[in-house]
Amino acid sequence: MEERIRHRLEDYLGGKLAPGADPLFDRLVESRPENLALLNSYRENAELFRETLRAPEGVAPAPGFYARVLARVEMEASQPSFWSTFTGVFGQRLVYASVMLLLILGIALVGTEADNRLPEYAEAPARILVDDRPDVHLVGNEDEDRGRVFVNLASFEDYQ
Q1: Are 133 and 152 in contact (CB under 8 A)?
Q2: From CA 153, how far away is CA 130, in angstroms rounded?
Q3: For a Cys-Cys bond, which of 43, 120, 136, 150 suits 130, CB 3.0-4.6 Å?
């Protein structure tokens, strides 16, 4: 389907496009039979929808219904909510203060996260586990140190 037909389809189906109002549209529809067949099937479907979805006669909202709905919507829109206190300058300042606090806490966390003992223990990780126990002595052999740490963990008692 051509772009021009697609653009004017809603007007055509709604009956707003009078014959001859758009000569290019008319030429496109008449020049190709498949366009005319497609438009006719759209028109039939639109009529079926209108007939099927139409409200039965006598069924309508009570008098003043729309006015009451509109009044209620306007009343609820005029009442300030809890969140409206954060929409002005106060809200902007609160956001900036929160971001700054988060930035300061992040810097403090990164600054205190670095443990200055790590380079010392990088060569012998078993040392971290027995550093506070004076009765366990590591000799520097990984296999033997691993066994001593295992015995230390298996017989752990709190000495505090």
Answers
A1: yes
A2: 9
A3: 136
Per the CB < 8 A criterion, the answer to whether 5 and 39 are in contact is yes
The rounded radius of gyration (Å) of the Cα atoms in the chain is 40
Strand ranges inside the chain, DSSP E: none
Output DSSP code: residue 10.
Answer: H
Handedness of CA 39, 40, 43, 49 (dihedral sign): negative
Structure tokens at 101: 């606090």
Contacts of 152 (CB under 8 A, 6+ apart): 129, 130, 133, 136
pLDDT at 32: 83
Give the chain's mean pLDDT. 77
The string of pLDDT tens digits covering residues 85-142 is 778 888 889 999 999 999 999 998 887 765 555 555 555 555 555 555 555 566 667 6
Pairwise CA distance, residues 30 & 34, whole Å: 9
pTM: predicted TM-score of the whole model, two decimal places: 0.33
